[in-house]
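#onboarding

Welcome to the new folks! Below is a worked example of what a typical request in this channel looks like: someone posts a single protein sequence, and someone else replies with the predicted structure as tokens. Don't worry about understanding the tokens yet, we'll cover that in week two.

Example request:
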Amino acid sequence: MSHLRETSFRTVEWSEAGVVMLDQRALPNEEIYLTLRTPEEVAEAIRGMVIRGAPAIGVAAAMGVALGAVQARELSIKPFLQRLDQVCDLLAATRPTAVNLFWAIERMKRLYLSLRDSSPTQIAERLAEEAQAMRRQDEEACRRMGQFGAPLMPDAGNVLTHCNAGALATAGYGTALGVIRAAVESGKKISVLADETRPFLQGARLTAWELSKDGIPVTVITDNMAGHFMRKGDIGAVIVGADRIAANGDTANKIGTYSVAVLAKENGIPFYVAAPLSTIDLDLPSGDDIPIEQRSGREVSHIMDRAISPEGVPVAHPAFDVTPHLYIAAIITEAGVAKPPFAESLAELARSNR
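Example response:
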């Protein structure tokens, strides 16, 4: 296998001035980096979709905790720890579906509680180191996912993806798009069909942007075109990311994923999920228990500032749906590929990675 390429941009990074994020709301027209100088600004960036994608918001939340610690390090230990608890609560309230957010916050909380006999300055330094380590670990995990998943991709032809599960949704390289990147690096002649992914257009704006920057052929289609191309035999596989995976393999991902999975099953096309182990929630028996974020109806009724539906007409906007495990051929993680029955294979992968 040839060397895996670096992406030409960074989604989220730690700096002395604050947490630096690529503002994904401005893509594909502008590449703008924001420096967020307080935990409150980091929380608002997560809530407001400056950054999105389960692994990426987990790393961003960890950096938000570290930023809170750096800014509070002049306090005595008791108010310092109280401030960190407040920051954790603030960040945990931003988005409910992606389990990586809560995983990252709990990891940071366990660390600072284990260090409570140290000085606030020492704790702040360790938290900053930990957040940066989590960013590196996420990118490494994505690269391992790519190596495990590449053999599952067809040797040539189109692969369909929904939403954006690339370097923009992670600390680098990507989950679903990381698998595609690795497959291309291995010599496979793959092109990507990117569902536009209404209403936030992550496929049209983000997946198309980052794949075109990497020179990987990509064609944008509307969400309701997927079945047409499947029936014509133009799609060899489907691969998506995930925001939370239950113990039985039921998977929450961007709204519309379930429809794609059903169409893939009907047309005999393998449907794969790529996600780090931190996305797997073994405490949830099934997808019925996954909380589904409800976002503003304005994101559906408007594109940018232009209204596309009549004023006053109600709009529903669940941001995610759940794909039952029966539609999923395999779940690709950094520890290996889980196949049905997922209740056994996911648990085994989790145990092997401890």
